[in-house]
């Protein structure tokens, strides 16, 4: 059932009636962007923390909008052992928002290809509000109500405020011939209403502002003190005034209190219209004991919370978890069930997207004791469309929110039923899932994609997240410190021959993580860059992730790590002295994010700047936050940023360094690098000259001797 702004009020009442009976709710959303077009330097990496992954996702999608919210309410029929399904598709668009409507081209094409009509959305979409905007709107409406109350008091001769100046009366000089004809029609209608002792009001459907002005002018001047005009949308309602004066000739009409009630009702309706889908979300929060079933929902919750509850720009991952578990404590991600334990083996799927997962559950062994579903008469056509989809006769309305929510809810019922059959040996084909003792273990767990060794996160328990992240093996990840002027190409040129395909995660301008896609290559990396002495040892340093964490722990405890602690070189290495004397400063910058020290290479291959004390509070890099408004790879305060070469800037940054300066920094960096190699070449040339002279002297002496 499609729900627009025209039938939203009725649909909301239906949902409110159904929720107390609901066993669970399948839901899905459609939105206008995933952040896929984000530059590579602003995307997450396979070795992000959960906090970093959350930050990147909400940061890269902050300009996009949720446009559909699908709900499928499943009500368990105990007598017939089946589920009654009530699907709804809420079209969401706020035409009054001051936020730009943005969309990724690829996402836009995907949505259009799957039947989403944006003309329909813009014309019929339901409004919404966050709590912050709601407070502003309520204050404005309260001010409007106060003004209307003053007008009514003056009209009913209760008090003359004298504050509001009436508009100037329209004359024939202001009106065209068509306007005069229209004004005459309005006068005739109002005169008939005056004569009719049964009718109290008349309504004009007029969307033209000028013609509404003509109606107001006629009411206020031609029939002064007889009528009161009130507008709702395009409807202008003219109501008779009934004065309490016994000598009044007008006996039929509305009293002052009745008129004021009309205005209050209009204010309430306006508030409800503007709140729109936000009312639905609050209704779901009030009934948050009902399980909310989604599929791969990490992005869905970011959009829902940001668009209907509160902005997320300044919200940390821990704060996001608190918001989530307060409002939606019984959420289940069906993709978690499908990718864990015995159910995963039974499915035997490599990809568990909504369509493949649902079609697999329609086959053996899931058809054995499969739950039954029925659609009320109002939703019978949706049930027929689903049957045709199951039989392969149509593509259905796949990737619209309502249809995906329906598939998700049915998939959950089938998979959870399999779990219940193992939990409780009952003969019925359909089991009441609310009685399960095992299913609540999935509450709050959301599928995670693209992080090494991590497949789910908890949006209810951050301590559980921390514990899971500590158990992840990262022996294929290396920490690298290098000169400031190095770029991505320098890292690939240096490490790719030994590391093969790899991922780079920048920490700041002089350090990064390198993750190997082929984990067996870690042996080559250790042998080449850590176990053996290198002539370029003082240009860049490499250490394993475990050594990096060990060093961080040492720093947190107030210690000062040496090269042996860092796991880079043995303490007896001939390079150890120079390394210990120089690297402390560089790692101060690496761990501190630039707070309080130069901490980096100055372009010279044998000298590092920086103090010898490591900061114990290392911070991850977040672009656009404190001290990195220009988007550089560091958290250095603004004053220090001016001295750092500007690279990988955010295109929208107002503080971005001009291209001319960026080119100058790049040229200077190349000059510093070339000077180093010129010095090496000069030494080689000098040695070559001496060798040549010796060979030539020996050859000349040999000729003379013979």
Detail the topology: elements first, then pairings:
Blueprint: E1 2-3, H1 8-18, E2 24-31, H2 50-60, E3 66-77, E4 82-91, H3 105-113, H4 118-124, H5 131-155, H6 177-195, E5 201-205, H7 209-222, E6 227-232, E7 235-240, H8 256-275, H9 277-286, E8 292-294, H10 298-308, H11 317-327, E9 331-333, H12 334-338, H13 341-347, H14 354-361, E10 372-374, H15 380-390, H16 401-423, E11 445-451, E12 454-458, H17 462-470, E13 477-481, H18 488-499, E14 502-508, E15 511-516, H19 522-531, E16 541-544, H20 545-556, H21 563-566, H22 576-592, E17 600-601, E18 608-609, H23 638-641, H24 659-705
Parallel strand pairs: 1-4, 2-8, 4-10, 8-9
Antiparallel strand pairs: 2-3, 3-4, 5-7, 6-7, 11-12, 13-15, 13-16, 14-15, 17-18
């Amino acid at each position: 059932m499609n729900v627009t702004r025209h039938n939203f009020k009725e649909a909301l009442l239906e949902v409110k009636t159904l929720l107390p009976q609901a066993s669970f709710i399948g839901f899905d959303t459609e939105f206008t962007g995933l952040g896929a077009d984000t530059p590579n330097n602003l995307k997450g990496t396979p070795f992000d923390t959960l906090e970093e992954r959350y930050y990147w996702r909400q940061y890269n999608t902050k300009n996009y909008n949720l446009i559909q919210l699908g709900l499928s309410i499943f009500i368990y029929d105990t007598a017939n052992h089946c589920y009654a399904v009530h699907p709804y598709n809420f079209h969401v668009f706020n035409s009054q928002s001051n936020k730009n409507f943005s969309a990724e081209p690829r996402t836009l094409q995907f949505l259009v290809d799957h039947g989403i009509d944006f003309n329909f959305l813009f014309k019929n979409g339901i409004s919404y509000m966050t709590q912050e905007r709601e407070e502003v709107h309520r204050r404005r409406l309260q001010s409007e109500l106060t003004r209307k109350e003053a007008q009514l008091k003056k009209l009913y001769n209760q008090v003359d405020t004298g504050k509001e100046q009436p508009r100037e009366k329209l004359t024939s000089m202001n009106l065209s011939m068509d306007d005069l004809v229209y004004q005459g029609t309005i006068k005739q209608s109002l005169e008939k209403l005056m004569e009719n002792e049964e009718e109290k009001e008349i309504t004009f459907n007029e969307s033209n502002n000028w013609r509404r002005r003509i109606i107001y002018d006629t009411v206020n001047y031609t029939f002064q003190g007889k009528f009161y005009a009130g507008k709702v949308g395009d409807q202008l309602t003219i109501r008779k005034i009934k004065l309490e004066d016994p000598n009044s000739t007008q006996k039929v009409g509305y009293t002052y209190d009745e008129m004021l009630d009309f205005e209050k009702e209009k204010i309430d309706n306006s508030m409800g219209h503007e709140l729109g889908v936000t009312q639905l979300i609050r209704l779901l929060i009030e009934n948050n004991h009902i399980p909310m079933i989604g599929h791969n929902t990490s992005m869905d919750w970011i959009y829902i919370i940001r668009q209907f509850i509160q902005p997320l720009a300044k919200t940390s991952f821990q704060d996001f978890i608190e918001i989530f578990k307060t409002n939606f404590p019984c959420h289940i991600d069906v993709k978690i069930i499908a990718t864990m334990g015995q159910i995963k083996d039974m499915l035997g799927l490599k990809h568990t997207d909504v369509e493949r997962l649902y079609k697999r559950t329609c086959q053996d062994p899931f058809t054995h004791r499969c739950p039954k579903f029925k659609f009320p008469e109002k939703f019978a056509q949706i049930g027929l469309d689903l049957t045709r989809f199951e039989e392969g006769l149509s593509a259905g309305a796949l990737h619209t929110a309502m249809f995906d929510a329906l598939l998700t809810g049915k998939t959950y019922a089938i998979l959870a039923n399999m779990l219940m059959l193992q939990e409780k040996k009952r003969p019925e084909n359909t089991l009441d899932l609310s009685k399960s003792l095992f299913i609540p273990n999935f509450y709050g767990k959301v599928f995670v994609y693209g992080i090494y060794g991590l497949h789910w996160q908890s949006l209810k328990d951050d301590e559980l997240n921390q514990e899971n992240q500590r158990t992840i093996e990262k022996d294929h990840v290396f920490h690298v410190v290098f000169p400031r002027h190095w770029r991505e190409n320098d890292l690939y040129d240096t490490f790719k021959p030994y590391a093969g395909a790899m991922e780079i995660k920048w920490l700041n301008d002089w350090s990064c993580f390198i993750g190997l896609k082929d984990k067996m290559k870690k042996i080559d990396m250790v042998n080449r860059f850590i176990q053996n002495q290198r002539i370029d040892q003082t240009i860049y340093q490499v250490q394993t992730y475990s050594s990096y964490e060990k060093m961080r722990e040492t720093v947190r405890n107030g210690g000062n790590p040496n090269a042996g602690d860092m796991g880079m070189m043995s303490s007896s290495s001939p390079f150890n002295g120079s390394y210990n004397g120089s690297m402390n400063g560089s790692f101060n910058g690496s761990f501190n994010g630039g707070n309080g020290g130069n901490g980096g290479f100055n372009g010279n291959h044998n000298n590092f700047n920086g103090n010898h004390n490591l900061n114990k509070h290392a911070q991850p890099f977040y672009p656009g936050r404190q001290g990195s408004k220009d988007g550089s790879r560091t958290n250095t305060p603004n004053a220090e940023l001016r001295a750092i070469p500007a690279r990988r800037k955010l295109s929208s940054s107002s503080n971005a360094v001009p291209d001319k300066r960026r080119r100058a920094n790049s040229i200077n960096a190349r000059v510093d690098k070339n000077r180093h190699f010129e010095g090496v070449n000069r030494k080689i040339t000098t040695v070559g000259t001496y060798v040549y002279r010796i060979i030539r002297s020996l050859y000349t002496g040999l000729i003379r001797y013979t």
